[in-house]
Amino acid sequence: MSTGRSIARDRAALLFANATFYRAFADKDVSLMNALWAEREPVTCLHPGWPPVEGRDAVLQSWHAILTGPASPDIECLHARAGIHQDTGIVICYERIAQDYLLATNIFIRSGDGWLIVHHQSGAAPEPGETPPQPRRRLN
């Protein structure tokens, strides 16, 4: 059954939404960050070293604190890879903050406004290689 959507176009739009998330983070743009999060779906965020943050208001308050705080980090997204499962998009990428690396998972949902984020999680990771590892075909 064809939905009339192009897989390549969907993946490009998803990666653009992910890049916009990191642009909002890097530019410390609270308004843009707020616009990227879903309003009608439950949202969650797992910032490194924080307890889980649940609910849109709490998530947006956490981002406001990070983006406006005196220690707001400079961040760069590297090696983003996207997967789409119907109306859910998952992006896995590295985050570089100073000389440290984190591995992040960002989950988006498709809406009338494009892809909106519903979950962000990042945690410590080793430095990525020049070429990200290829996914394995089998889990076991």
Can you characterise this structure?
Strands 2-1-6-5-4-3 form a six-stranded mixed sheet. α1 packs antiparallel against α2. The chain is an alpha+beta fold and 140 residues long. The termini are far apart. The chain is built from three helices and six strands, in the order ααββαββββ. β1 (44-46) and β2 (53-54) form a beta hairpin. The chain is globular and about 40 Å long.
Order of helices and strands: HHEEHEEEE
Tell me the strand percentage band. Answer: 25-35%
- Please count the helical segments: 3
How far the N terminus sits from the C terminus, by CA atoms, comes to 31 Å
Q: Helical content, roughly? A: 25-40%
Total number of β-strand segments? 6
**Unreliable stretches covering 5 or more consecutive residues:** none
The neighbouring-strand order within the major sheet is 2-1-6-5-4-3
Give the overall pLDDT as a whole number.
90
